[in-house]
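User: Can you predict the 3D structure for this chain?
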Amino acid sequence: IDSIRATNPAAVVPDIAQWWLYCALAERDGAAAKDALIASGDAVFFTHNVPLNRPFIEGVIARMIKDNEKARSAFSAARTEQEKIVQAQPNFGPALCALGLIDAGLGRKEEALREGRRAVELLPVEKDSMNGAVMVEYLAVIAAWVGDKDLACEQLASVIRRPSSLSYGQLKLLPFWDPLRGDPRFEKLVEEAKKPVALK
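Assistant: Here is the predicted structure, written as structure tokens:
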């Protein structure tokens, strides 16, 4: 990325910048994550059909580098934006899921869990196996962020035992899962995620 930026900065289009951001988060490189966010322009980040607005990503970066004041400010701004989307589309699971993630970042435990659970209800795995699994995955993140490790591990176990977009590498490297690191249940699930999922 650095050589591309040095020789042809225009080549770092928003799609590439989003992958750069993903890699920077995995490497816990706050400076690179901020640069990638700048390079992404006004793009909305879609993580498996869940729209994540720019202030949310700023909050994730700030949280990762332990800048709690900046994280709170960014998540508050993200909430203002996301709340409008949810009000316009109250039965759209991915938007509600994003609001749950934001509320988890703000420490609003009850609201976050309610929103995450509602997103799972609106887009169940039985109705949409891939996107439904994403709702369950993010409910696990929400639970982890608000300190409910039991729920987080329970939801995560259900995701990794079925076909989904969640990978071993994501669990191993991304900061979303940091609150669970060191928990033997989580570490066991990370190891389990290495194995292929048996199709039923």
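DSSP finds eleven helices and two strands in the chain. The radius of gyration is 17 Å.
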